[in-house]
Amino acid sequence: MRNTFDERLVPDDSAKQHIIYDEHLIRYELAKEFVKDKTVLDIACGSGYGTKILAEAGAREVEGIDISEEAIISARKNYENNNIKYSVGNAEAIELEDKTIDAVVSFETIEHLKNYDKFLSELKRVLKEEGLAIISTPNKDLSQEKNPYHIKEFNEREFIEAIKRYFPYCFLYKQFNGLATCIKAPATTGENDAKDKIILNSKGDPVYFIAVCSRQDISDKIPAGAIAEVNTKALDTLYNNPGLKIINKIYSIIIKVPRIKKILSNFS
Fold first, then answer.
1. How far is the C-alpha of 113 from the C-alpha of 211, rounded, in Å?
2. pLDDT per position as a tens digit, 151-165
3. Which of 16, 45, 87, 136 is deepest in the core (most CB within 10 A)?
4. What are phi and psi of 132, to 5 degrees?
């Protein structure tokens, strides 16, 4: 599990201006689809914002566990709820009874662990026979193992192989990042209200993998469709970058020079 509070997301106003905010929250939006009326473990819960999301999504009970006492103190202070319990603990030695949990959520954890097999074995142990685990990790092919906090990263094949040693049924979601444009439908009334439609055009490689896995067939529990987050504050932060502003200012000046304008038009 993470050994520093520095790498955890604390969703304050500053964090909301960066894409990492949406990277983390959108995974919990997916997890919400699987936790209604269930006993849930959020292992490596960090500051606790996601644990509360799961609790408010209809989980019967959520236990948030993290190796950092500082993180748990913060979680108890900021993200308490009547169906949440927070405690300090180790992802490689979970202090819960066998087969007592309906669903485990563990985002950005496995790559931090010295013994990831022990971690997966522990998830299997605490889950009921029909229980499921939702596990995310960065795509090694993109991250190229540059994060100093990560002990072991996985490509798609390696991740699936590791998961299937413990959970024979594995459905792999792929998370992409990028700039987005959005057309929001006008508000209407009545039964035929317009619903948001997501059109995905992801030509790049996924930044993260998210495995939904179990010992039993869960194909009937996998929701169709995609989930997207549009963060206008993050885009504003990009556009208001001082360096980019200087470049845009220079460009707006030189584009007015006829010869340069003609040259640039040949590339448009």
1. 17
2. 999 999 999 999 999
3. 45
4. -135, 155
- What is the C-alpha separation between 199 and 197, in angstroms, rounded? 7
How far is Cα 132 from Cα 167, in angstroms, rounded to an integer? 9
- Separation between Cα atoms, residue 226 and residue 224, nearest integer Å: 7
User: Residue 46 corresponds to which amino acid?
Assistant: G
- The identity of residue 210, as a single letter, is I
Beta pairing partners, 173: 210
pLDDT tens by residue, 12-66:
555 445 556 578 788 999 999 999 999 999 999 999 999 999 999 999 999 999 9
| 3-state SS, residue 200 | coil
Both structure tokens of 133: 């685990």
Which positions ≥6 away from 5 have C-beta within 8 Å? 68, 70, 71, 74
Is residue 232 exposed (0-12), middle (13-18) or buried (19+ Cβ within 10 Å)?
exposed
Q: Which pLDDT belongs to residue 90?
A: 97
CATH superfamily of 5-230: Vaccinia Virus protein VP39 (3.40.50.150)
180 phi-psi bin (left φ>0, alpha ψ -120 to 50, beta other): beta
pTM for this model (two decimals): 0.79
Where along the chain do its domains lie? 5-230, 231-268
